[in-house]
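Q: Could you fold this chain for me?
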Amino acid sequence: MRALVIGRFQPFHLGHLKMLEYVAAREEAVVVGVGSSNRSRTIDNPFTAEERMEMIRNSVSFRNFVLVGIPDMNDNSKWVGWIRDNLDFKVVYTNSNNEREIFISAGFKVKRIPFFNREKYSAVEVRKRIIGGCEWESLVPQGTLEVMDRIKGAQRIRNLSN
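A: Sure. Below is the predicted structure, expressed as structure tokens.
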């Protein structure tokens, strides 16, 4: 079955990688929805959708996935309608209670994903460490490190925090 997983991936970290590997091991294919695709260069969304997609592409070893940008719409019914009209999937994997309710109400099957050391592996934690000048590189896969280095992502986060 094709499964949908949505995240902002700001930046893509090892918890995200474990999450996608978990879903890919259970499903025929994974549609990776890069959320807030129309938002970038803010402290909460420092990277463009293209940059985040590159981080993911360079970090995952399995190949049964597709990447799609999902824009914010500030209207849950429009948002889930856009997803239904534009993406092909049968089940949604999420731990967000809000997303669970939205997708269940829209008639989709929804499954939970185990958290993988959530306190350590979170994009907020990665950005916090970067801003504080602490070690953060061990929290992200090599593919993310390479993209972050090329685009000067850590410096961008520090600049956006001022």
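A (continued): Helices lie at 14-26, 49-59, 76-86, 97-105, 123-132, 142-151, 153-161.
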